Amino acid sequence: SRDVIGWRRSLGELQRRMAKTFAPKDVLRQISNELLCELFGSLNADIDVPWDDLRETDVDRIYREWQDLPESACRSVEIVLHEVAEMADGDEGIRVIVEEFNHQGQQDLLEQFDQYDSRHDKALWTYLNARDVWDMAVLFARADSLARGRYWIKRGSMPVVEPNTSREAISALEAAVSHFFRERQSRGRYCQIDHYVRASGVYYFFAYLDDYADTYVALDDEGSFDRRPERRAFEVVFAYDAEHGTLEMYARGGKRVYVPLQELFSRLILGEELGPETNDSHPYRLNGLINRDFEFPTDPDDGIMAVRVRKLELTPVGRPRRGIVFKGDPGAGYEDVYDMMEEYLKAEHLSRPEFDVKRVGLQFTFDTSIEGLPRSMSFEISAPNSCNLKSKPEAARVLAEKYLREWGIDCAAAPTDAQRVDRT
């Protein structure tokens, strides 16, 4: 029965709660009383609060009444406020909400959303008045934050087809992914996959699988300690770009995990068998960046003010387990990392193919007068196939991906019209 997968939504709630400190009173102060009143009412969490007489940010009474609710009602409010706090933390969550409003063509609701100044108010108003937008925005913001500090694995030269998103195909992938983890890791007995198309046109497939069983200590309704069994979920995410013939994946476990999962995805969703990885399927070529004269031409209309190499990790050719890392001073000139290399290595070594570039850290500086762009964005790429760019804000990430292709750093070849296959 799929009832056992009721943990799917609570997975994100629990992980987000663990990721950051949640200060309930501070969150309450950030939200207008009007929206707080509407939230409690929408969840049938009746609290005795004189909303009309209560000053904004005077939250002690609200907090006490909330905590005195029955456990289920108290928890339902807490879950929503956790999500609101996460989406309002910085500008990224709000950008994803706006992206989804535009993607769904909800311009009338977007105009009402824009009337709120507080990010917390914007987030909670969306939850209350545009649940379809909210659910998608939370999901994509979760995907963007999954690999913070970690790397997505990218494979080029994928079959260029319209993915098969029928219930039959999704069920087949669920069964195959579940079988893979059961056989290899003795977990993942149950699997559920949700698929969505993002505004950028990339197809996302979120796989949720049950993890190893565990117990935790909790307080029951009488305030006594109780040991409760729990089987949380873990996630695997596939992001397929049909336009450029690439597949990016978030999956823990290294090559022994992501390669078989790539093959299953291609076989069951794209309808083609993947051959062994080759240089063509490895998208990133970094060796040209060892040269300080590497150019980063951009279109002024895209709002990229500057591109800087902030970090280079070199490995001697034929000795990949050895490495040298050069990290430039953020306050120094834009070519500080190259000045360091020439200071510590003889210049003639850099002009001969004695080193490979294993990893590079890039920083983009943007024109913030263009809506949706941050002031700057830093990310890292590792040869041959990993990058943490997927965790960055959508508008800036799309621009960076465009130019990585134009500069020849991302060599995943764009397919020709003759290569495209439409299943519909």
Structure description:
This protein has 424 residues and is an alpha+beta fold. The protein contains 14 helices and 12 strands. The protein has helices spanning 7-19, 24-30, 33-42, 60-67, 71-88, 92-103, 107-113, 119-129, 131-146, 167-185, 255-270, 336-344, 347-350, 394-406; strands at residues 152-155, 191-197, 203-210, 214-219, 225-230, 233-241, 246-250, 304-316, 324-327, 355-366, 376-382, 386-387. The strands form 2 sheets. It has a 10-stranded antiparallel β-sheet with strand order 2-3-6-7-1-12-11-10-8-9, with helices on both faces. It has a two-stranded antiparallel ribbon with strand order 4-5. The protein is globular. The chain starts with 6 loop residues before the first helix and ends in an 18-residue tail after the last helix. 35% of the residues are buried. The model is unreliable at 1-19 and 418-424 (pLDDT under 50).
Give the topology, please.
Blueprint: H1 7-19, H2 24-30, H3 33-42, H4 60-67, H5 71-88, H6 92-103, H7 107-113, H8 119-129, H9 131-146, E1 152-155, H10 167-185, E2 191-197, E3 203-210, E4 214-219, E5 225-230, E6 233-241, E7 246-250, H11 255-270, E8 304-316, E9 324-327, H12 336-344, H13 347-350, E10 355-366, E11 376-382, E12 386-387, H14 394-406
Antiparallel strand pairs: 1-7, 1-12, 2-3, 3-6, 4-5, 6-7, 8-9, 8-10, 10-11, 11-12
Helix pairs in contact: 3-8, 5-8, 6-9, 8-9, 10-11
